[in-house]
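User: Structure please.
Assistant: Input sequence and predicted structure:
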Amino acid sequence: MNDLLRITPRDNVAVALRALSAGETVSTGDMTLTLRTDVPAGHKTALADLAAGDKVIKYGFPIGAAKEDIPAGSHVHVHNLRTLLSGELTYTYQPTHPSLDPLPERTFMGYPRKDGRVGIRNELVILPTVGCVNDVARGLERDAQRLVGGGVERVYAFSHPYGCSQMTGDQENTRHILADLAAHPNFGGVLLLGLGCENSGIDIIRSYMGDFDPERVRFLVCQQVEDEHEAGMQLLGELAERMRGEERVPCPASKLVVGLKCGGSDGFSGITANPVIGGFSDRLGARGGTTILTEVPEMFGAETILMARAESEEVFEKTVALINDFKHYFEEYHQTIYENPSPGNKAGGISTLEDKALGCTQKSGFGPVRDVLKYAEQVRTPGLNLLSAPGNDLVAATACAAAGAQLVLFSTGRGTPFACPVPTVKISSNTPLAEKKRNWIDFDAGRLLSAGRTLPSLAEELEEFVIAVASGLEVKAERNGFHDLAIFKTGVTL
């Protein structure tokens, strides 16, 4: 077994597959070298002498430049590597015209909705319009557990601090996210719970919901009733009774919408978990399904790869706007655009934002980019979509759910317990994490290295797992009772 992984023949660095010590003679392919320094697992070593200013190549692309001379066999990381990224750029459309060979249709067991979408869960949800009623929502969640059974799979309340004291863009974000979730296909019944004096009250959220199914939604304004808990329980009982007899039926996999997200990444994320997710994305796209790639700041440095895959010049221009608008957002608040990766990323072997981005975008596979979505905009085009949202795990995953994703695939090298409003599948980049955190991790992509599995076989296995989850298999976060909602905030709080 090799000690190092050289990802492409162009690379002048390789990734340590285990912790390596100075003085060891190690190999990758037919190349051997003696290490001058220790190299932790997941970190990089130079395969050739690099002069100060030389570009460091990984994934076949530059991930930065050497700050100083780096002899072959030396650890390459934040101490001797700097980013090459700068501000907003001008891009030219140079399409590669990728395509996916169709795969046969297959089915999962889901809940068809009147709007043509399909739920993979049939949950009863309490959704506050404003943070002032969060405790009321939690009380209803607690007492409504007795309604679980039959077609009612779970009862959840999603608390958040917004809905009032917000201005312009933030207020619009809150309204759209809440309206999108109130009509989400995973929710068989929704109680929209308002206070009565907030900026984004019940009537406003209802007006943002479009053509929703009135049989699945109830509205309660707490200031208008004597006992909001009693009134809420009555409405939840009505919804539960409506859901009680509903059953799963076969539904085409083309109805699946899956969010793609990573967090707590390490040096293995871009060579195991994210490529496996990318293989799944291509497989689902080939079956007519939809995937959503988000966390725009973690596309910086790899954006031209996505732009070249835009299926039309219109999609290319929308991708350019997606990238430069987010850079402008950073500049508007006088923040460094490339203040990334995180301390955990660096500890795991990721050195620059280019390094992180080239690994992150592996989740998109190789298929064409079909559309680009604004934050809180719902998906409308099958295939790979790009979605405007920050890198923050909870905010970005919630944005995927609001865009229409029925589940989110979340790769991680460090581990995290969180979950968003839809089932959140945790995929480990390394086998030790999967073995240590069995209560968090659903799928071990580290087997690509630890067990000698092939990427196509693991991508196919992940597809089978997703079909099982879509058909009702609980993920670890669901078993743990984890569920969160987070809304993007950019401006002033009144």
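The chain is about 30% helix and 20% strand.
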